[in-house]
UniProtKB/TrEMBL annotation:
Belongs to the major facilitator superfamily. Phosphate:H(+) symporter (TC 2.A.1.9) family. The gene is LOC107823032. One of its GO terms (biological process) is monoatomic ion transport. The chain crosses the membrane at residues 6-23, 44-63, 75-97, 129-151, 171-190, 202-220, 286-307, 319-339, 345-370, 391-407, 413-430. Pfam families: MFS_5 (PF05631). GO terms for molecular function: molybdate ion transmembrane transporter activity. This is Molybdate-anion transporter. Keywords: Cell membrane, Ion transport, Membrane, Transmembrane, Transmembrane helix, Transport. It comes from Nicotiana tabacum (Common tobacco). Mediates high-affinity intracellular uptake of the rare oligo-element molybdenum.
Length: 462
């Protein structure tokens, strides 16, 4: 492994260690109760196991498909199946989570993702396609049901609202940072050191998911969305759409989330071919661990920013989106400024080194994004239909990613990075608007909307 990888990894690790060991300040001065600490630690343990199951797969999905003999176009179709299923079924499973129970939805995530992992053993395209569909459904549950359960349970137990940001930041720091780094290194150990093959990380992921499911079943209580109603799915969709349309802040938040996550998921597909355009031999697991260390650094900054009254989340996220936009411009700049290498195989090129630094910057922005968007969602999204609305947000991002991947062979990789950069810059503009109206009261709250709809359509009355 080239010395460059160790330098980048070591530098990021040193900064994270300095922040965590030497910079403990505001966030640790918040006085919490023993009951809350137990609740928080239980959630972080479960969330970390769930993320371990997800992160172990990330670096090897593209690589596994390529070892089965599929080209970039075929692999793009498989990725489309995952994002397409997340788009088609995500809102349905989100609404079912609100109606049938968030704990039940979390268990469903574990079962669905374990089945998806099992399909990776087959080199048959149809079986892999089924696995991608199951993975798309699981992803929708991962990014809606767990957060919805946490927020509802947090307030049901009477904990201070300020403490919620502690759980968010710590969950992202551990689950999206520390666990992701360990998962990347562990995957690299399984594939490269033990030579167990690219399917071995998926088997390990299934084991972690099974352990997490056992903890959920034994220690979590159930909670629901709006328990006062027994509405069908179509009515739930309508209510969520009304909530988004009636409150500009919710609509802006949804657009911002879609633009950022759409760019992020496109990046997940693009970083491997970007760093190895001539089939350079790159350590996928170690690079992934480096990305996650950068994300861990970002979440550490987010924890400190959210523990202070100033600047507000709505303000500093404008800067985050601008920086993330600039970082994804590097693959375009290196194309014009650095002479391309035509040597097949070998180690990472000079332009690849520059891009790797930019990608680490982008991952740092991702680390800032996750706890910050969670904080804003807890403030603006009504509890009664939280999972439904959150999965509504995922529809446009999945459409965007599917369009990009469908045309993956039609456009140069620099064009796709340019699109992502533009979308991130648009997100910064929308974030500026959200910051400007953050303190304005909603024109109509959720309860008032329900009462009005009941008066207009008495058939929907409970």
């Amino acid at each position: 492994m080239e010395f460059f990888y160790y330098v980048v990894f070591g530098a990021l690790a040193a900064v994270v260690a300095a922040l965590e060991l030497g910079g403990k300040s505001n966030k640790d001065r918040i006085t919490t109760s023993q009951a809350f600490n137990s609740f928080k630690n239980n959630y972080i343990l479960v969330y970390s196991l769930m993320m371990a199951g997800d992160w172990l797969q990330g670096p090897y999905v593209y690589y596994l498909y390529s070892t089965y003999g599929f080209g970039k176009g075929d692999i793009g179709q498989l990725f489309i199946a995952g994002f397409g299923s997340s788009m088609l079924f995500g809102t349905i499973v989100g609404s079912l989570a609100d109606k049938q129970g968030r704990k039940r939805a979390c268990v469903t995530y574990c079962i669905t993702y374990i089945l998806s992992c099992i399909t990776k053993h087959s080199p048959q395209y149809k079986i892999l396609m089924i696995g991608r569909v199951l993975g798309g459904i699981a992803t929708s549950l991962l990014f809606s049901a767990f957060e919805s359960w946490l927020v509802a349970e947090h307030f049901k137990r009477g904990f201070d609202s300020q403490w919620l940001s502690l759980t968010f930041s710590k969950a992202i720091f551990v689950g999206n940072g520390l666990v992701a780094i360990i998962a990347g290194l562990f995957g690299n150990f399984l594939v490269d050191s033990l030579n167990l093959g690219p399917v071995s990380p998926f088997d390990a992921a299934a084991c972690f998911l099974a352990i997490g499911m056992a903890i959920i079943l034994s220690s979590w209580s159930e909670n629901y969305g709006d328990a006062s109603e027994s509405k069908d799915l179509l009515t739930q969709f309508k209510g969520a759409a009304v909530a988004i349309a009636s409150d500009e802040k919710i609509a802006l938040l949804g657009a911002i989330q879609s633009l950022f996550e759409g760019s992020m998921y496109t990046f997940v597909f693009l970083w491997t071919p970007a760093l190895s355009p001539n089939d350079e031999d790159i350590p996928h697991g170690f690079i992934f661990a480096t990305f996650m260390l950068a994300s861990m650094l970002g979440s550490s900054f987010a924890a400190r920013l959210m523990a202070q009254n100033s600047p507000k989340v709505e303000s500093y996220m404008q800067i985050v989106f601008v920086v993330s936009s600039a970082s994804l411009l590097l693959p375009i700049l290196t194309t014009f400024l650095v002479s391309p290498s035509n040597v097949k195989g070998g180690g990472i090129s000079f332009s690849g080194c520059i891009q790797l630094l930019g990608f680490c910057t982008f991952e740092g922005c991702c680390g800032l994004f996750w706890p910050s968007i969670m904080k804003m969602r807890s403030q603006y999204i009504p509890e009664e239909a939280r999972s439904t609305i959150m999965n509504f947000f995922r529809i446009p991002l999945n459409i965007f990613v599917c369009i990009v991947l469908y045309n993956v062979n039609a456009f140069p990789i620099t064009v796709m990075f340019g699109m992502c950069s533009i979308f991130l810059f648009v997100a910064s503009i929308l974030q500026r608007r959200l910051a400007a109206i953050a303190d304005k009261p909603k024109a109509e709250d959720w309860v008032a909307m329900k009462e009005r709809d009941t008066e207009v359509d008495p058939l929907n009355a409970p």
